[in-house]
Amino acid sequence: MKPISRLDMFDHAERVLKINDMGTYTVPTHGLYPFQWNWDSCLTALGQAHFDEHRAWTEIDTLFQHQWEDGMVPHIVFHKQDKGYFPGPDVWQTGRTVPTSGITQPPVAGYVVKRLVDHARDPDLAEARARDLVPKIARWHEWFHACRDPKKTGLVAILHPWESGRDNSIDWDDAFSRVPTDGVGEFKRRDTSHADAAHRPTDEQYKRYIWLVQRFRSLNWDNTRLHDASPFQVVDPGFNAILIRSVADIAELAERYGMTGIAQMSRRHVAEGLAALESLWDDRLGQYVCFDRPAGRKVDSASIGGILPVFAAIPLERVQQLATRIEALKARVEYLIPSHDPADPRFESLRYWRGPVWLIINHMIIDGLVRGDVPDLIARITSDSIRLIEEGGFAEYHDPLTAEPCGGGTFSWTAAMIMEFLQIVEPVRAGS
Ligand code: GLC
Question: pTM for the whole thing?
Fold first, then answer.
């Protein structure tokens, strides 16, 4: 692969976003992911806003046009038929006019919308679009609190590893081993014809992914029943931090726009979430960990999901502790931040969410670290992210030891995040 020069990087990123642009939505990459993905789209909009704010808002509007009546925003919208992806609409069978999957993804929309508003070059456009989106996003947040936290613990559970956005993280291994595979039937994976099988989840994991889909489908995707019916319910600190952050950002926008009810309700959820998040702190690892709800125990797994809470307004002391944690990881990799601690024997540098670096995660962690007094660490994560692209191109994710590009190529959110990183190091160029 031809190395990408830093001088050309911004324009190159813009080209990637344009190649993947389908008009009103953007695919993560052609071939491997040929539809609209929820958090990919929202984070991609941050990149689009650098060159076309209208287009960025449309990206999020399109996603929310497919919000379910109960408030959920699905993780995939299947705008067009494409036989190259499994599991497609025929497996999900959610009964929607434009088919969607039946599960959700990390709710970054609230965060993204506030960021678009705060950085807008066209504030009138931003306010008009945000005013329309805020109540929809708030409804999605309420859906989470009602359907994924039925006992009102302050924290929500994911019911499928795909909901976390960190599909095959080591975090899920224990809980996932309780998901049966019998009766799943034959199926043909498509991902491994687009990407190296050694970089992807295993066949055994795929059977369990599909078992859960079939289970939820048998309940007609009734979200009032799915939580209790799922053998897999994991409270992920990273996912919850994203939710808490988005709820807080929506509270702020709602307040600005005089949407008092939404503002008050959101503030209450933020306070409850932040208080409950503390229960996931693990002193031994110096980071947060997941909680396996049916088993009633914490999960011993040092993943990036436990560092991501820096993205929410956690106590400043915790921000410092998480910075110390990242400093420790620095000695174990060439490029920050690995999605799993290499000191753990289960770490795999090339396999998806079991070790590789993902720029979207670096972006959110940097955003959170700004609250701490760690400029050198922020500079290091930023320059590592840019070096990864210089050496490995706009891949889906990269090996933290060698920068080897992995998964899909010409990836939308990688390109969008690079535009954000370049803005940190060259604010005038990227912001112009
Ligand atoms: C994979 C990732 C997920 C992402 C999707 C599309 O499933 O794990 O986070 O949204 O691909 O890029």
Answer: 0.97
- Residue 21 a catalytic site member: no
- 167 belongs to the catalytic site: yes
Q: Which residue in 40, 171, 348, 396 is the catalytic one? A: 396
Q: Which tens digit of pLDDT belongs to each residue from 371-419?
A: 999 999 999 999 999 999 999 999 999 999 999 999 999 999 999 999 9
Question: In angstroms, what is the span from residue 75 Cα to ligand 1's centroid?
Answer: 9
The pLDDT value given to residue 429: 53
CA angle 379, 383, 389 (to 5 degrees): 155
Chain center to CA of 125: 26
Which of 16, 20, 32, 33 to mutate to test ligand 1, by most ligand atoms within 8 A of the CB atom? 33
CB of 165 closer than 6 angstroms to any ligand 1 atom:
yes
Q: Smallest Cα–Cα separation from 349: which of 418, 294, 341?
A: 341
One DSSP character per residue, 28-81 reads SBTTTB-SEEHHHHHHHHHHHTTT-HHHHHHHHHHHHTT--TTS---SEE--S-
Distance CA 243, CA 131 (A): 19
CA of 261 to the centre of ligand 1 (A): 34
Nearest to 77 by CA among 51, 42, 46: 42
Query: Kind of pairing, strands 287-288 and 397-398?
Result: unpaired
Each residue's pLDDT tens digit, 84-109: 999 999 999 999 999 999 999 999 99
**What are the φ and ψ backbone dihedral angles of 51, each rounded to 5 degrees?**
-125, -15
Note whether 233 and 212 are within 8 A (CB).
no
Taking the domain 6-425, which CATH number applies?
A: 1.50.10.10
Angle between helices 53-64 and 109-118 (to 10 degrees): 160
Give the residues of the chain that fall short of pLDDT 70.
1-2, 427-432
Phi, psi of 397 (to 5 degrees): -160, 170
Residue 78: the pLDDT is 98
